[in-house]
Every structure is written in structure tokens, then in C-alpha cells.
């Protein structure tokens, strides 16, 4: 067997408003996972964990609370979705990346389209480890706020995951007066919250170069990575608008 490799990289990336932030990337080929963390312009700490073994990706956002409006110091959210092949480079390739020019401010070579996801199912934290062992660590602060999608749940159930960890959330069809939180005037009413995040820079594809040997035979070899940027918007049910104060008309 190939010995497990671990790597940690720090890259400087430019945020949409022009500020520069540092992103940390970790790869562990032994547990076949990658994690990436960055602080956004509004101070939120966003983490993406890709668990290749279970085909699961976990987004966590730690959002600074508005203390003067009765919120706690920070609010934690976890969004769990299916990890597709070729979304991110494999963990063993990431573990081989080496830090070059750490002071360079990087910008992604490719901007991938914004993905809008309707998170209509809640995940039970205490059972979530069956879906991915990383949920226990990554989502510990978000025990009551772990969301996924019905179509991803179907995929995992077919793989044999225990369905009792999932609970379908109320939908607009169940509650006809359920509004989007930004349109809802009452802070204590349930509504559909929206949260957007962006992964500014991540290694999304391997690059291959061709070489020719003395006999003229052409072969290809890995010769680098391609970097991408991708944004996500998650819509999900909250029992009261107080849990979604960022989603207001500005």
C-alpha cells in the first residue's frame, strides 16, 4: 500500500471586494479527505471538507452574531451535499502539492457557475457520523443546524446509509404562508433563509503535459493543477427569522 501523505498549504487569495485573505488547505491521503478554510470579507469563517471515501462534502460557516440584536457571539451552519467525481483533485494529488511563492496573491484560473441548492432535509448530529466521520468534528457547533437535500439523501440511502438520521423540513407546500426571511417582517416567525458562500481558490483539476521519448513515443504526465472559484447559495427552513438576520433587504 502507498504510505499515507499529509500536507498543509497556505495560499493568499483576493476576495471579491479586493481584500486579501489567507486560505489554508489540508490534505490527508490516509483518510482520503481534503479540507479548506478561509475568512470572508464579513468575518465569517468558511470551511469545506471533502470526504472522498463517503462521497460527501461538508460546508461549515461560523457567522459572527449581531449581539445588539440578541444573537449569540456566532452562529454555526453546516450544509452536507454529495461529492461528485472530478469536482476537486484527489487527496493524494493534493497531499503532493508544495508551497511555491507563499507571498503571491492568487486568483482562480476558472470561475465555475454559482450553484443554488435547496436544503430541504435536516441531519441528526448524533447519527451523522455514519454518513461521514467528519461531521462529528466539523459540525459540532452546528448540532441543530445541519442541512442536506432530498436528492442527495436518496443517493446515500442507496449506498446503505441509515435513513433515520434524516428529517424532511417543512416546505412552502406544507405552510402556504412560509415566506423568504428577507421578506418576513416578524423576527419570530418561521421562514426560508438564504446563505451564500464562495470558495475563492481551490485545486479543481489536474493538468497533464505530454512528453516524447527518444523513440518518439508520446506519454502524458501530471504537471500541475488548475484552480477554480465557486459560489454556493443555500436555502433552508428556520423556525424563526432571528436565526437569519443577515438575509435582509439592504
UniProtKB/TrEMBL annotation:
PANTHER family: OUT AT FIRST (PTHR13423), OUT AT FIRST PROTEIN HOMOLOG (PTHR13423:SF2)
Domain Out at first protein BRICHOS-like: 8-156
Taxonomic superkingdom: Eukaryota
Stored InterPro entries: Oaf (IPR026315), Oaf_C (IPR053897), OAF_N (IPR053894)
The name this protein goes by in its record: Out at first protein homolog
Domain Out at first C-terminal residues, every copy: 180-248
Family from the record: Belongs to the OAF family.
